Amino acid sequence: xxxxxxxxxxxxxxxxxxxxxxxxxxxxxxxxxxxxxxxxxxxxxxxxxxxxxxxxxxxxxxxxxxxxxxxxxxxxxxxxxxxxxxxxxxxxxxxxxxxxxxxxxxxxxxxxxxxxxxxxxxxxxxxxxxxxxxxxxxxxxxxxxxxxxxxxxxxxxxxxxxxxxxxxxxxxxxxxxxxxxxxxxxxxxxxxxxxxxxxxxxxxxxxxxxxxxxxxxxxxxxxxxxxxxxxxxxxxxxxxxxxxxxxxxxxxxxxxxxxxxxxxxxxxxxxxxxxxxxxxxxxxxxxxxxxxxxxxxxxxxxxxxxxxxxxxxxxxxxxxxxxxxxxxxxxxxxxxxxxxxxxxxxxxxxxxxxxxxxxxxxxxxxxxxxxxxxxxxxxxxxxxxxxxxxxxxxxxxxxxxxxxxxxxxxxxxxxxxxxxxxxxxxxxxxxxxxxxxxxxxxxxxxxxxxxxxxxxxxxxxxxxxxxxxxxxxxxxxxxxxxxxxxxxxxxxxxxxxxxxxxxxxxxxxxxxxxxxxxxxxxxxxxxxxxxxxxxxxxxxxxxxxxxxxxxxxxxxxxxxxxxxxxxxxxxxxxxxxxxxxxxxxxxxxxxxxxxxxxxxxxxxxxxxxxxxxxxxxxxxxxxxxxxxxxxxxxxxxxxxxxxxxxxxxxxxxxxxxxxxxxxxxxxxxxxxxxxxxxxxxxxxxxxxxxxxxxxxxxxxxxxxxxxxxxxxxxxxxxxxxxxxxxxxxxxxxxxxxxxxxxxxxxxxxxxxxxxxxxxxxxxxxxxxxxxxxxxxxxxxxxxxxxxxxxxxxxxxxxxx
Amino acid sequence: xxxxxxxxxxxxxxxxxxxxxxxxxxxxxxxxxxxxxxxxxxxxxxxxxxxxxxxxxxxxxxxxxxxxxxxxxxxxxxxxxxxxxxxxxxxxxxxxxxxxxxxxxxxxxxxxxxxxxx
Lengths: 800, 118
Known about the structure:
The structure holds 2 protein chains of 2 kinds. Chain A is α+β, with helices and mostly antiparallel strands. Chain A contains 25 helices and 27 strands.
């Protein structure tokens, strides 16, 4: 037993412990100590308890709790008595009545305070805290759970069959968010068993659901009476659920469908759908009955049908009439499981225009692998094809136009090859001198229509005053493009009913007219017209057409130039002929009278000689000499004429040079009275040249030598040669030639003169002609001279 | 025996003087001015013919060729004359025995006539 002093100290300590501290003797049941917390906690004063003791306190314990408490306590005590080291004996929770009558939940820890000498517990310290709050909560919890479990039982009985059959998860919560029922599917979905879940609150079971949309909707829907459906992602499981919430008076029924797979599929589908939607190629799918089941944006663009207009219709919608059998063949292939790759064909759009396409078609199979339809990718190769065709046409047209100068024929060929790939109808018109248009070429895909076309033209000669079409192009030299001809345009252009009918008959769809321009003047035009093919011309086509027309204009220009050249050649030929004739005539006309005179003079001289009249004979001899001079002058003049006209001919042959020289010297000496012509040296060579002409040169030089040395008595003719050339020099000892004039001496019309005296006789042509002759024969001619001492004229000629 | 010479030239200036000249020399000379007349010659054929290349409307060389083809006239020597010496070769090719250029020396002509009539 402690002493009161000890207790006082201890008291002080115990006062500081939060909680109710009681120390009592287990044998006597009297309290040794109680702290101040009692009042606050249970409303009693210490004095009351001291007086009443343990039994009183015990009576305050709730009857339901007392039994278990006593039991527990007793057991714990005996245990603690046996284990002499034990400190804590027991703890228990129980209800105790507050002075004001209300029940308080209390947790008490019993601790060994004192043992006797035998080690048996004598006094115990109880530390108690008020757990009313917590406890009430717990109980509420418990009762809620119980309640839920109750409900569950009900559900399990009545609904087990129905709900258990559902493949969707069904969760039923009561108004306290406690699980009241979950079906098999729900167990599977959540991964939790019924037992784990029933009676517990949702957030208790799945705390991770707190911030999810699912929980939010539960909170929103409970007690509101309006059902709701959401589709959301559940992060704790990384799954997608579609959940429907049905509030009931008692709580809420939740149907939950796992749509994760779907979602993923949707994503992929969306992805593929995007590819299909945004693809430039038309992607169309159809079933085995050729009915269109899908139609992407590019298909709308390509064919002109909107999705809703196409889906449900037969694919024949876009197949031209003449290609109908293609579809059957395609379906056959598809049924066999084959794909078709890059098949080039033609399809038709809503507006009737034909589109050249490349198709790739693959079979579509269902989940069981059975072919249920076909998926078709159509690529528009029109543009590509058009470009190819345009280029080919351009290259062919070019080739044709360059192949011949007969442009009327080549233009006709060009118009013909334009059919059918470039146009259905092609016409080429040229402007005549009178300003009227003449159609030089026309070609039509349908030969019958050529007749119509010609009739159209006959009845409608292009109105050159008109503002439309052909006349516009001819007038302005500008090209015209009609990408799309509609009926209004035809009506506007037609002047009368007959014209209108004819124009409609021609079924004009599109046209382009390009001018043929030569030297900035429009001389014609080429028209390309599309009718049945449904082709629409665009600016690229127009460029190509302009290329063709520029080639045509080149071809025409070439033809014209050629014609001019031919005419020029003719003119020149004529001129040459005239020159030839003139020279021939001049020669003849001049020489004939001279011949006559000379012959008469000679005959007379003979007569007079015979008669013995030598004086008369002499006179005639003089006459003859003069005639020779005249002849010589005429020869020179004719030679110059020939040289000017380029008509000087040379008859080349091999001849002995020295023999020629000797012959000439002999001849000349006969008629040279005063001078002695002396040859010096030899060449010993045979040369290849014009003997006559060379002789002419030598004669000229020797004659000059005597002429220009009238006071002298000799003239030297010096011959020499080296391996390659022969050389002849004629030296006189006469007046000579001044330095400045030496170069000019071989010029035409140059005449030497001595100062203060009359010029020497002659026309001044001899040396010019001689120098021309020598030069033409491949030689050289020159002069060396000292005025007053004489001149030496030399020439060299090649031996070969 | 007197040699018979036929002078063929359409220009009387030449024809007359040559006839005159040759007569002086003792030949029996006649003349014709027309190619057709020459080709129609049948009898009284000359011993030598002087033939001008320039006959109005005709080329003397063709006349020469024609004569050389005929059996009766082909042996008659023909001397052709012309104002242009360049055509000498062509006259020889046409069958002429010789060529003389106008204006000519009388002696040269006589010489050639003698040469070809022996």
